[in-house]
Amino acid sequence: MVSLQKKDAYRVAVLGATGAVGRAMVETLARRNFPVAELRLLASPKSAGQTISFRGEPVVVQAAEEAAFAGIDIALFSAGADASLTFAPLAVRQGAVVIDNSSAYRMHEDVPLVVPEVNPHALAHHRGIIANPNCSTIQLVVAVKPLVDLGLEHIHVATYQAVSGMGQKAVDALMQEVARGPASSEPTLFPVVSQPEHYPMAFNVLPQCDVFLDNGYTKEEMKLVNESRKILELPGLAVSPTAVRVPVLYGHSEAVALRFSRPVRVEEVRERLARAPGVVLVDDPARRRYPHPRMAAGTGETYVGRIRQDLSDPHTVLMFIVADNLLKGAAWNAVQIAEALIGRGV
Amino acid sequence: MVSLQKKDAYRVAVLGATGAVGRAMVETLARRNFPVAELRLLASPKSAGQTISFRGEPVVVQAAEEAAFAGIDIALFSAGADASLTFAPLAVRQGAVVIDNSSAYRMHEDVPLVVPEVNPHALAHHRGIIANPNCSTIQLVVAVKPLVDLGLEHIHVATYQAVSGMGQKAVDALMQEVARGPASSEPTLFPVVSQPEHYPMAFNVLPQCDVFLDNGYTKEEMKLVNESRKILELPGLAVSPTAVRVPVLYGHSEAVALRFSRPVRVEEVRERLARAPGVVLVDDPARRRYPHPRMAAGTGETYVGRIRQDLSDPHTVLMFIVADNLLKGAAWNAVQIAEALIGRGV
């Protein structure tokens, strides 16, 4: 694995620092005692001047521009694909390694797409940019990777996705809708801020995450397919995704069925997941123990439960997977990549 | 099809009249101008004495007891399995036809389990009791029935179920949790009132509807399997269910994948569903049109959209199915059965 130039501490930039994921990145760097020599917080000009606390000290947010990356060792990006396309090459040219949470570079052949528990070896060959996968993909591959060599052939996944995946403004919007009460059907900004059709999100579920593509699937659904294939290094893996937004603030859930090339015992799946990195097994139906978003929120783990044999097919196992979409699904996975790069391991 | 003794109007009883489904039954009888000569509203002794409005007139709720069924032609039951087991035989002995919304008789061989759009012929042979299927099953079979003869082999279904499926007290409990705000994690009564483990339902999803059985599935999940097989008359149908409660008040949703014995075209599926009884096709991704619970709430239809080919398997089609769980999922289906029995057709 390539290491950054070894240092006692690193100059770190966070682009998109005022967003929901950016703030979680700053908090995660602090909580992990990441060796930060200097923290530069960057955002759009309209957010510049805000202060964000890091280890008890206020840090003033600066406008993102080329010069802001001078001297930076590690840049964590979470300001959307356009900002990444603009600033990642500029940051890399000045010597930074960019860990990019946007979708801009994820499917580029020469950009590693990394979940440290799953494919840390992919970090060995990068050209300055490492992509952080989509939130719903990360928790899926963390739970699925320990089972791949049982002969994984097909993943059926229906998601229950928190609104914070659309940013802090979506969290605020859901709270505003909830405050108006269930009789109000006045929509705010769901499912997609920039599109004209808005539907109520409070007391509702919406089978649209991100925009639709020509094939009738949403971008979020195709990320589940394409990113899972790349990370698991299974280009022929069959994935059948349905992505649904639910009125949850933090924590994505996934109802998953995995089909293997041979019969699989539930006990074998449980044993593998019990010792899998990053996984917490919560699976005791007799005591009504299983994962749910309020359990996962604020943590970095991926929770797996409801593991059971398919009723008709001994090759298939069903399970329920939950993780905090802002942490393991974004900020914590990005910081984990940074830790792997500086050789602190995962 | 067996008809009740032909009359201009019928003496109708509603058992469980003060519950969420019972009230919806009374409203549905009124909205449909069901030919009611007398409406007798029955409930537990502690609810007796309440009044419920029917066609603008107050009706006093009486305590359920054997004598209360004297002279009744049609009895709509929605007071739980125990009440059904107690009172259904007593009502039938006195000449009533019982349409039972509980799970008590659904899987009895000599009790028809009926969704009028799907298997009205099953009404031809009953012994006084007709079972109304479980809410999540009804909307599934309404949407699936028009596709069965394409060679249906397997249903994968993940549900998003409204709290009103647990009764009015669950609606009140969710509103109470929501009012406390997302920082409170004080639980009320979810996922199962009578069990000791309660988790927050507000801003959460819980992968448990009803109690767990020994096979690791919940009762709700096994209803989806067993009731679908009985109604569709496909005893070997493979069903892979995950039932999840979501913070929605009214309207169940289902992310479904259907596998057939031969390749199936999406256009063929759309055409069949467009003319299927009880189905409303809402399927235009280019204009962001698809079903969601707030669209279905208060209506008797089953909404289907997000119809798309599986990405890897030409034998499989995915879709999203939504209906009001208290109406098509319970009260309206029961009144539909009554209408079919008196020969007004469906």
Automatic annotation (TrEMBL), chains A, B:
Transmembrane segments: none annotated. Residues 11-126 form the Semialdehyde dehydrogenase NAD-binding domain. Phosphate binds at R106. Coiled coil: none annotated. It comes from the Bacteria. One of its GO terms (molecular function) is NAD binding. The active site is at C135, H252. It holds the Pfam family Semialdhyde_dhC. Keywords: Amino-acid biosynthesis, Diaminopimelate biosynthesis, Lysine biosynthesis, Methionine biosynthesis, NADP, Oxidoreductase, Threonine biosynthesis. CDD domains: ASADH_C_bac_euk_like, VcASADH2_like_N. Pathway: Amino-acid biosynthesis; L-methionine biosynthesis via de novo pathway; L-homoserine from L-aspartate: step 2/3; Amino-acid biosynthesis; L-lysine biosynthesis via DAP pathway; (S)-tetrahydrodipicolinate from L-aspartate: step 2/4; Amino-acid biosynthesis; L-threonine biosynthesis; L-threonine from L-aspartate: step 2/5. Its EC number is 1.2.1.11. One of its GO terms (biological process) is lysine biosynthetic process via diaminopimelate. It catalyses: L-aspartate 4-semialdehyde + phosphate + NADP(+) = 4-phospho-L-aspartate + NADPH + H(+). SMART domains: Semialdhyde_dh. Substrate binds at Q161, R245. NADP(+) binds at T18, G19, A20, V21, K46, S47, S164, G165, N325. Catalyzes the NADPH-dependent formation of L-aspartate-semialdehyde (L-ASA) by the reductive dephosphorylation of L-aspartyl-4-phosphate. Belongs to the aspartate-semialdehyde dehydrogenase family. Homodimer. This is Aspartate-semialdehyde dehydrogenase. It comes from Alicyclobacillus cellulosilyticus. The gene is asd.
